Amino acid sequence: MLKSTKIKLTILISATFFLSQCKNDFKVNDEWKDIAVIYGLLSSSDSINYIRVSKAFLGDGDSYTMAQVSDSLYYQNTTVKIEERINGNLTNTYNCLRIDTFREPGIFAHNNIIFATNAVLLNNPDTKYKLLVFANNKEITAETALIQDFPVYPINPIVQLSSSTNKLSITWSTPPIGKIYEPVVRFFYYDITSTDTTKKYLDITLDSQLSTSKEGGEVMSTSLIGTAFLHTVANIMPNNQNLIKRIVAKGSLEIRISVGSDEMYSYMQATLPTSEMVTDKPNFSNINNGLGLFSTRFIKIVPVLPSLRFSLSQNTIDSLAFGKVNGPNGRNLKFIKYSPDTYVAWTSTLFP
């Protein structure tokens, strides 16, 4: 199966903690306590990094009514900074900008407050980043190193995925502190209608993998079988009522490997839903003077070989156009057949 434990690491984690204590006298709400809830995943592969600062709330009134009040969820006067330290020495301090956004009306207050920095984070194993949040006369801190860039071994520039005997093999060496790996094959194509030509893509998610060591240097590999590629494209390709034809893009394949830290994996394990009625799952937090997660992730992007006109082989393009799965007698995705005289000319003059 292509999709077993699909965990989206490129989404910013957010949650609301509902804290209560039960005693023998059935006093549900204890004395009010200010508990900060912090979430942030730093990455040197992102141009903007976000920090979410909120708070747990508990009171004697109706919880739905309290959730509609912004003061129940967010501090009104908050300062967020990130300190950069190389070998323990302070080298930079980045002030995070408050951003007020709005969401659709629902259970919680419609305004959403996050903090962001566009600082260029160093891809350096000797660098650590310390989060400092000042809210309601208290300091909340956390610290993380960054997942570093890592090598992906060379991939054949012409990928054959037209049958069960073909496969795209992906092999990489793990970076230090990386724990969970989610490889994705991104397939680029064009939808052509009478009025527009739009470049689109499909993500084919392969099985997640876990490293056994925090030290890095572990060799991991996975593969996408040709028939699995054709069937997955047929299953997830969206319908387009106005479609005239589809064309495979130049540099049509891209490998994306999302990596999460050990702390991030521990947090996900602690918060995954369970089918059991009674559980004693441990809470996970690495926030000092608060709750939540401050850690790191990284996305490795590897184009198969963008200098070539196609990453997919001619046979694979023809299988998309006329094969029994994707052709007129199958899903009929309307891909055009490869032709040196027409296909190459079109892609070189009309499509980037």
List the helices and strands and how they pair.
Blueprint lengths: L34 E8 L6 E8 L6 H5 L2 H4 L4 E9 L2 E7 L1 E6 L8 E7 L9 E9 L2 E8 L21 E7 L4 E15 L4 E9 L3 E2 L8 E7 H11 L8 E17 H10 L19 E13 L10 H9 L20 H7 L3
Parallel strand pairs: 1-15
Antiparallel strand pairs: 1-2, 2-6, 3-4, 3-7, 5-6, 7-8, 9-13, 10-11, 10-12, 10-14, 14-15
Structure overview:
By secondary structure, this protein is mostly beta strands. It folds into 2 domains: 35-148 and 261-296, Sandwich (Immunoglobulin-like); 167-258 and 301-349, no CATH class. Helices cover 13% and strands 38% of the residues. The strands form 3 sheets. Strands 1, 2, 5, 6, 10, 11, 12, 14 and 15 form a 9-stranded mixed sheet that branches. A 4-stranded antiparallel sheet has the order 4-3-7-8, with no helix packed on it. Strands 9-13 form a two-stranded antiparallel ribbon. Strand 7 and strand 8 (138-145) form a beta hairpin. The longest helix is centred in the middle third of the chain and has 11 residues, at 226-236. The radius of gyration is 24 Å and the shape is elongated. The two termini are 33 Å apart.
Question: Which features characterize this protein?
Answer:
single chain; 352 residues; mainly beta; Immunoglobulin-like; 4-stranded antiparallel β-sheet; 38% strand; elongated; disordered N terminus
Distance between the termini: 33 Å
Helix content: 10-25%
Number of folding domains?
2
- Helical region count? 6
Describe the sheet with the most strands. Answer: 9 strands, mixed
**CATH top level assignment of the largest domain:** Mainly Beta
Number of strands: 15
The CATH architecture category of the largest domain equals Sandwich
CATH superfamily of the largest domain: Immunoglobulins
The low-pLDDT segments are 1-29, 58-70, 106-110
**Rg calc:** 24 Å
Q: At the third CATH level, what is the topology name of the largest domain? A: Immunoglobulin-like
Shape: elongated
Please trace the helix and strand order, writing H or E for each element.
EEHHEEEEEEEEEEEHEHEHH
